[in-house]
Amino acid sequence: MFRSKLQKCLKAWIKSGGDLGEFLHEEGAVTIETKRDAIVVCQTLEHLISVLPTKADAQRMVSTPLQVVTGLFQEARTEAAYLTLSTRGLPLLHSVLKEGLHGERYTPEEDLLFILKVMAAYHYEPAVHHTVQALCNHIAPQHYLWPVILTHYAETGHPHALTLIEKIRHFLPSGSPGAA
């Protein structure tokens, strides 16, 4: 069976660990061209969920493995890859997001925001509730990702834009979200 460079990199990382971002950068394997590529990204995310780093470990990293795998969702190049990430991968990210926002598992705030960004870009409906929750809980209010997240909802035709506006219309968030 043919394996793409991305598939080989992710399978090797699952076996050996290390800095996933550096590993993918060195291999130049960052696009998701096929449904099989997307499945391997989801398998990597499933593995990652079982071994998410502690707070101390995450603070020593430039980019956590979760941030790197979440970033791969932005690299889907075919409809089959996009649909696989939407149906199989987004629910996995959603579970990590919920646990992180509820304090059930340590997840760096930047990782939470990056997940919200990807979910907004994918028009993932449950992201609206969690975006509001993160805004109300003042999750990293000065972070540069807030304007990016909210810009996704501001896009013409975003199916959840009005729902988000309705939920936040009674308060103006502070920091970067309020400015956006």
- What number is the mean pLDDT? 89
Strand runs, count? 0
> Count the helices. How many?
11
Gap between N and C termini: 47 Å
SS-derived structural category: mainly alpha
The helix fraction, in percent, is 55-70%
Order of helices and strands: HHHHHHHHHHH
Shape annotation: globular
Main pleated-sheet profile: none
Contiguous runs where pLDDT drops below 50 for at least 5 residues: none
Structural commentary:
The protein is an all-alpha fold and 180 residues long. It is 66% helix and 0% strand. It contains 11 helices and no strands. It has helices spanning 5-16, 20-27, 35-50, 55-59, 65-72, 79-101, 109-121, 126-136, 145-154, 161-168, 175-179. Helix 3 (35-50) runs antiparallel to helix 5 (65-72), helix 6 (79-101) packs antiparallel against helix 7 (109-121) and helix 7 (109-121) runs antiparallel to helix 8. It is globular and about 55 Å long. The mean pLDDT is 89.
Summarize the structure.
The protein is an all-alpha fold and 180 residues long. It contains 11 helices and no strands.
Reconstruct the topology from this structure.
Blueprint: H1 5-16, H2 20-27, H3 35-50, H4 55-59, H5 65-72, H6 79-101, H7 109-121, H8 126-136, H9 145-154, H10 161-168, H11 175-179
Helix pairs in contact: 1-2, 1-3, 3-5, 3-6, 5-7, 6-7, 6-8, 7-8, 7-9, 8-10
Key phrases:
globular; mainly alpha; single chain
